[in-house]
Design goal:
Strand content: under 5%
Shape: globular
Radius of gyration: 14 Å
Largest sheet: none
Structural class: mainly alpha
Distance between the termini: 48 Å
Helix content: 55-70%
Length: 70
């Protein structure tokens, strides 16, 4: 429908771009490099083109770091 403000899920995924900072943060998570991971997650958050799934993962990992750091 023209002028529809809500894109379909498929269209929203098509606009997503791979976020190399999120991929790096996941690797750092696996190797327990938490200080580096915090920087990577901040860069991932600031990167344009994040899709909902990536944003959810970024915030999940940031929450994990916050819990570790008290």
């Amino acid at each position: 429908m023209p002028g529809d403000p809500l894109p379909t899920a498929a269209a929203a995924r098509a606009d997503c771009r791979p976020n190399p900072h999120l991929a790096l943060a996941r690797e750092q998570y696996s190797s327990l490099a938490f200080e580096e991971m915090a920087t990577s997650l901040q860069r991932a958050l600031e990167s344009p083109g994040n899709c909902r799934e990536d944003l959810a993962e970024i915030y999940r990992l940031k929450g994990y770091l916050d819990a570790i750091n008290g």
